[in-house]
Write a structure and sequence with these properties.
Layout (H helix, E strand, L loop, with lengths): L1 H15 L17 H20 L5 H21 L4 H14 L10 H50 L12 H28 L2 H35 L6 H30 L4 H27 L13 H28 L8 H24 L15 H22 L3 H34 L9 H24 L4 H13 L1 E3 L2 E3 L1 H29 L7 H26 L8 H13 L2 H16 L7 E4 L2 E8 L3 E6 L4 E5 H6 L2 E3 L7 E9 L5 H14 L10 E7 L4 E9 L5 H19 L15 H9 L6
Antiparallel strand pairs: 1-2, 3-4, 3-7, 4-5, 5-6, 8-10, 9-10
Helix pairs in contact: 2-3, 2-5, 3-5, 4-5, 6-11, 7-8, 8-9, 8-13, 9-10, 9-13, 10-11, 11-12, 11-13, 12-13, 13-14, 16-17, 21-22
């Protein structure tokens, strides 16, 4: 029963989850006039309150009232922002009148107008307040009904009955089991006799045979053909091969399911089954799909050789795991068929638990064996040890514990709890297997394209994104497996869609979505215009590179700010409600973020005044290099050692900065040189001036100069001072001029001195005597 209930819940959830957001918009209730609407809501609310106060209430009645409450709640939620446009206008009018003077005295016309606007504002707020009150009431009643259902489910789950090991229950259980078989056979035989006698069997037999043939064709031929096709495709190298192989394996499942439906229709066409037989026939597709899914999942997780092996198990381990997985599926399918056959029989307390105990024990034993296999250590592949992995160890241990705990709980009289624990654990294990299969497919795709250029983009994050989405989608599935109702899933979605109140404005996820969409569009448009300005428009102007970068950066900041403001307005967020938060943030900025704000403001100043630009050669704080990037917070300088230095913008605005190339590239070079005493200074000056004028980087207007700067300790000191066309080459020019000086001075016989020291000994005879007194060492 638990398995079939879960499948029904899963089917309902999958078919209704995506349009859940449109429940509030669907015209499920045609609201009459305001008074009739209020009376109808009051009657429903009173009826729901009476159900909550009752000690015993059927789950059907609770579900019916709850469904009506959900419709009303969604309607009230849509009204919580009623009259938003008119309220904004009235608030703007009141703000335009200004605040009331402290003395309380103002012009009578203004006071009357203010009072009228305040009264109009209260009238506009009244429907919103009433909707919020009704929404809170409906929301509370739904929560109370959910708690009541949860209490009933918990009581039924932990209700203790007689132990199935009580020998007194065995005869009744055997008799009931045999009675199910006899009644099923008797009903089928009687219906068969009736169909034969009236001739309906012969008339229905060709149609039934057609369904049987179709089912055999789909389950047998089509499934085998898909297996061969998958094997042929796996040997090829095609784009997204893992996805195509996985889709073919899913087609095997669909073909098998379609074949089971055809066989079921064929059996129903014969009309030879009674009430219990029809229940069994109706359960065949469910039971058959359990077997097919167990077969498919076993070969996907524990490869039979047609798929790559990722868990690192030995062939014997994988073969045994596939067998146990399929056996568990057969046990669950048999349990579903037997439950359908025995569903209409009234059984005494403990008899049903005794009848279900063999199925629980068999499923527990198979799950225990599978858990032991999962914990098996993997083998080395290609001389590389496969990671043992803590996840598989944890899953294996949980399987072994549940396999023992489930039947043991049922033995102590808690049959429903034991069955729910074991069945939910097996289904959860199946969901984990599906997650592993999907992750393996993504892993195969990422490995296949890891060397391509595409892998550097979205493919690099594809495994992480897909894993996150798979985990997120699996959460409601796990919740359904472990007893949650579809109403619980929709209730979580409704709470999420409800959002939260901020002042007089309610912000919902749709508002965030609208904000994200509008802001993203504004951001993309800003970047597009920036690119157009940088590549097409600004290069045609007379602005230098620094000015162009300043214009592009300024447009980017303004565009992003406008995009944020337009997105906030489009989402309907009232910024006036954030006044207190903004005040708190201003205090935080004043104390903790002052350096960041200072750098930000300094960055804007740099972009506007442009004392430095990208490409300038600057010196600041002992660092010298080229400006490579100016951002809002800092500036990046590349030194001559090819290292990047990040300098806060505040240091560039408040500190001393030397810009060697601001405005133009012209700069001065100074080359110092010394000659020996006694050298003709005029000749030295002539040679140095000739060298400076001959260099191609030296401009002649103004002409270079040679200065006799002074008398040094060892030399006569001269300097060459010249203006260069491009100061960026100052180091190279200085080196080339030094080479020419050495060459010309050598040709002219001019000596470049170096420091020399003369040592005078005052008592040389004393040193000689000390040397004669030393005894030579032999």
């Amino acid at each position: 029963m638990i398995l079939r209930a879960f499948l029904v819940r899963l089917l309902i959830c999958c078919s209704l989850l995506w349009p859940a957001a449109a429940i509030a918009q669907s015209p499920q209730v045609i609201l009459p006039a305001a008074s009739e609407e209020t009376a109808a809501w009051e009657r429903l609310a009173v009826r729901a309150e009476e159900l909550v106060m009752r000690d015993t209430t059927s789950a059907f009645a609770i579900a019916r009232v709850r469904a009506e409450l959900v419709v009303w709640r969604d309607n009230f939620l849509s009204r919580t922002n009623q009259n938003a446009g008119r309220l904004a206008t009235v608030n703007a009018q009141i703000a335009a009148l200004g605040t009331v003077p402290e003395s309380g005295e103002e012009a009578s016309s203004i006071a009357e107008r203010r009072a009228a606007l305040e009264n109009q504002r209260r009238e506009l707020l009244a429907p919103r307040v009433l909707a919020q009150e009704s929404f809170a009431r409906a929301n509370g009643l739904i929560s109370e009904l959910d708690n009541k259902i949860l209490q009933q489910q918990t009581a039924a789950l932990f209700q203790r009955g007689p132990s199935p090991l009580n020998p007194a229950l065995w005869p009744a259980a055997l008799a009931a089991t045999w009675g199910v078989v006899l009644n099923l056979g008797a009903e089928t035989f009687a219906s068969l006799q009736v169909q034969i006698s009236n001739g309906h069997l012969l008339r229905n037999l060709p149609r039934a045979a057609l369904f049987f043939g179709l089912g055999i064709f789909l389950v047998g031929f089509v499934r085998r053909w898909l297996v061969k096709m998958r094997l042929q495709l796996a040997s090829r190298e095609t784009r997204f091969l893992p996805i195509w192989v996985f889709l073919l394996s899913l087609l095997q499942i669909f073909a098998s399911f379609a074949g089971l439906l055809a066989v079921t229709n064929g059996l129903e066409t014969l009309s030879v089954f009674g009430l219990r037989g029809q229940a069994v026939v109706a359960t065949i597709p469910t039971a058959g799909m359990i077997v097919v899914l167990g077969w498919w999942l076993g070969r996907q997780v524990f490869s039979d050789g047609t798929l790559p092996e990722y868990l690192g198990y030995a062939d014997e381990t994988r073969s045994a795991a596939r067998r146990y997985t399929l056996a568990i599926a057969w046990v669950l399918a048999f349990g579903a068929l037997f439950e359908a056959a025995a569903g209409s029989i009234e059984l005494a307390a403990g008899v049903a638990a005794t009848m279900a105990l063999p199925v629980l024990v068999a499923a527990g034993f198979l799950l225990w064996r599978l858990g032991r296999l999962v914990q098996t250590a993997p083998v080395a592949v290609a001389d590389e040890a496969v990671s043992q992995g803590r996840v598989r160890l944890l899953i294996g241990r949980v399987c072994t514990i549940v396999a023992v705990a489930g039947p043991l709980i049922a033995v102590f009289g808690y049959a429903s709890a034991g069955q729910a624990l074991l069945t939910s654990s097996i289904l959860s294990l199946g969901v984990i297997g599906v997650i592993l299969v999907l992750q393996r497919i993504v892993h195969d795709i990422s490995i296949r394209y890891q060397e391509s250029e595409e892998s550097k983009g979205i493919f690099a994050l594809l495994p992480l994104l897909v894993s996150f989405v798979v985990y997120l989608v699996s959460l409601p599935v796990f919740a359904l497996i472990w007893g949650a109702r579809t109403d619980d899933i929709f209730e979580i979605w409704s709470r999420f869609r409800e959002g939260f109140a901020l002042g007089e404005t309610r912000i919902s996820p749709t508002d965030f979505l609208m904000f994200a969409i509008v802001f993203s569009l504004g951001y993309i448009l800003t970047r597009f215009v920036q690119g157009t300005l940088r590549r097409t428009v600004l290069p045609r102007t007379t602005l230098d590179l620094g000015g162009q970068n300043a214009v592009v950066a300024g447009f980017g900041y303004v565009g992003i700010l406008l995009a944020a403001l337009i997105a906030i307005t489009s989402a309907g967020i009232d910024l006036s409600s954030l006044a207190i938060v903004a005040g708190a943030l201003s205090v935080g900025i004043g104390f903790g973020l002052q350096n960041i704000v200072s750098n930000f403001v300094s960055g804007i100043i740099l972009l506007i005044e442009r004392p430095i630009s990208e490409g300038d050669w600057i010196e600041v704080g002992g660092q010298m290099g080229y400006v490579r990037a100016i951002s809002v917070r800092s500036t990046r300088i590349e030194t001559f050692d090819r290292t990047d230095v990040i300098i806060p913008n505040a240091d560039l605005v408040s500190g001393q900065v030397t810009n060697w190339t601001r405005g133009n590239l012209v700069g001065r070079v100074i080359v110092a040189v010394g000659v020996a005493y006694g050298t003709d200074t005029k000749k030295v000056e002539e040679i140095l001036l000739k060298i400076a004028e001959a260099h191609p980087m030296v401009i002649l207007t103004p002409p270079p100069a040679v200065l006799f700067t002074g008398f040094g300790a060892s030399s006569l000191d001269f300097e060459i001072r010249a203006i260069l066309r491009d100061v960026n080459y100052v180091v190279r020019v200085k080196s080339e001029i030094n080479h020419e000086i050495a060459k010309e001075f050598a040709a002219a016989g001019i000596e470049i001195p170096f420091p020399q020291n003369d040592i005078w000994l005052r008592n040389p005879e004393t040193l000689k005597g000390s040397a004669d007194d030393k005894t030579p060492v032999s």
